[in-house]
Amino acid sequence: MYRQCLNKLHQTVKLQPIGNALCVCNRKLTLDPQSEPAVDPITIDKRDKVTLIGLNRPGSRNAVNRDMARQLTVAFLAFEQDNSSNVAVLHGKGDHFCAGYDLKELAHSESGIDEETMNHLHNVHGAMGPTRLHIKKPVIAAVNGYGVAGGLELALLCDLRVFEESTIVGVFNRRFGVPLVDGGTVRLPALVGLSNALDLILTGRAIDSEEAIRIGLANRVVKDGEALSFAVELAKEISHHPQMSLRADRDSAYNAMFNSTSKKESLDYEMNHALDVVAHESIAGAKRFKDGEGRQGVAI
Fold first, then answer.
1. Cα 64 vs. chain centroid, distance in angstroms?
2. N vs C: which end of the chain shows fewer Cβ within 10 Å?
3. For 206, phi and psi rounded to 5 degrees?
4. Helices (H) and strands (E) in the chain, counts
5. pLDDT tens for residues 219-270?
6. Which residues pair with 222 in a beta bridge?
7. Global pTM value
8. Cα separation of 177 and 204, whole Å?
């Protein structure tokens, strides 16, 4: 599946080869051209207009190593370029979402950051893979079991998070002297507020699904074993909406949260990016409403 995604990426994106690397978004994504694992650490499935991206190292609680991070980045780039897919669902195979970065790789360094680790951090969009990407389409995390350390950061990368009742999340890397390098200090305060974020970041404590939904970290909580199926249905619901206006509104919200320096700048950005949508999508939608479709909030 990894090679299929890579081939599709070659076909749909103009990439310039540099040795064994591809130039993607002005950064290099290093790839191993010789071999592919017998069991793909990343799985990809399509259901209607939804792409399922699976973390597939269940024996290691889906901890992400360098090769897995590279393949996860390729999977997200392929989803980004797939015009037949509107929403992605990120999930973990087995009993857990993700236990973070595989610290066994970091433990091999005798002192300081070795060259291989440094190259990894520069050659992909984050230690966990795609965490520095601004993905242009919605992504939902289906979080079961443990979603901790870098695994929590992967969940924070997503727009929405579906937890199971027994899900546990936390900044567990705190106890090992490992900093957050995949957006945790950026996205967590934006989602739950600075006070709640600092509580988790400074203490490294575990929180359950009940607290997660109370502070706004989880968007939905479902019974154990149902996170993936619920996330897929939620993704299908989102994928059925007109996508141009949906993506414009989503982009404007992220801009207002992370990029804009003033309320006026945010409002101008919203309006300027909405005008093209009105011309290409909104007029047709208004005509449908005028003809009686979707009145009184009835699903369409």
1. 14
2. C
3. -85, 145
4. 12, 12
5. 999 999 999 999 999 999 999 999 999 999 999 999 999 999 999 999 999 9
6. 164
7. 0.84
8. 11
